[in-house]
Every structure is written in structure tokens, then in C-alpha cells.
Amino acid sequence: MGYPILLTLHLLAALMFVGTVFFEVLILESVRKHVPEDAMRAVERAIGQRARRLMPWVILVLFGAGIGMAWERYLQLLAAPLESSFGTLLALKILLAVSVLGHFVTAMLLFASGGMTARRSHFIHISVFCHVLAIVLLAKGMFYLSW
């Protein structure tokens, strides 16, 4: 599969994932104050069920395309990431992405085992939000920052 296709798939999956995280943290949290608790639980349950069905596929495309892009274009650069600003920022972006994947797997396991609490969910959402924000800034910075 060619780099332009991998890049397009990666960007579309990133839009879906980042958009979902931003929606949940920045919009859904503030809606909570204005919606009755039972209605909010129903909305969160419905969104959660849909996200748990859709997000594994989004994550698969996101990471699959990212790995494909790294393999096709950036393998040598990643062999010595500290030798260039681009390589350093890309390696940091990958490290944060792996951490997000860890958060995602942890959340899925907690949901499956019944161990997900509101407090854990809130912590995971805020942590993933911060990671994703940093990843987006690094993705842009890779092309505009140099030292």
C-alpha cells in the first residue's frame, strides 16, 4: 500500500479518534450539568456502547497505517531518532501513541471485567485528552520545528 493511502487512512482515523476524545472531554462533560442524571447515564451508556464497537477498528486503522508509514518512510530515521529534530519529535509522538494504546486497552479490560468506575473513566479520559493534544502538536511540530 502506498504512502499517500497510508497517510490518508492515518489522518482519517486520527480525526475520528481525536474528535471522539475532544467531544467526550470538552462537550459531554459540560452537558452533564444541564441534563438530568438518569438521562445523562442513558446517553453515556449509548455513546460508550457505540464507541466500544467502533473504536477498536479506528485504533486498528490508526496504528496499522502509522506502522506502515513508519516502515515505508521513517525506519532509518527512527533507528537514530536523536540525530534530528524530526526523528526526535516522531519518536516522542510514537511513544505517546503507545501510551494512548495502553490507556485504551486498560479501559477496554476494565469495562469487560466490570472494574470501570466513574473516577477511573474520568482519569483515563483526561489523560488520553492530554496525550492526544500533545500528539497533535508534535505531528504539526515535526514539520515546523527544528534545532
TrEMBL record:
The protein's UniProt keywords, in alphabetical order, are: Membrane, Transmembrane, Transmembrane helix
Give TM regions.
6-28, 54-71, 91-111, 123-145
The record's section on InterPro entries has:
DUF474
Keyword Membrane part of the UniProt annotation? yes
> This protein is called what?
Integral membrane protein
Specify the species.
Pseudomonas schmalbachii
- Provide the taxonomic classification: Bacteria, Pseudomonadati, Pseudomonadota, Gammaproteobacteria, Pseudomonadales
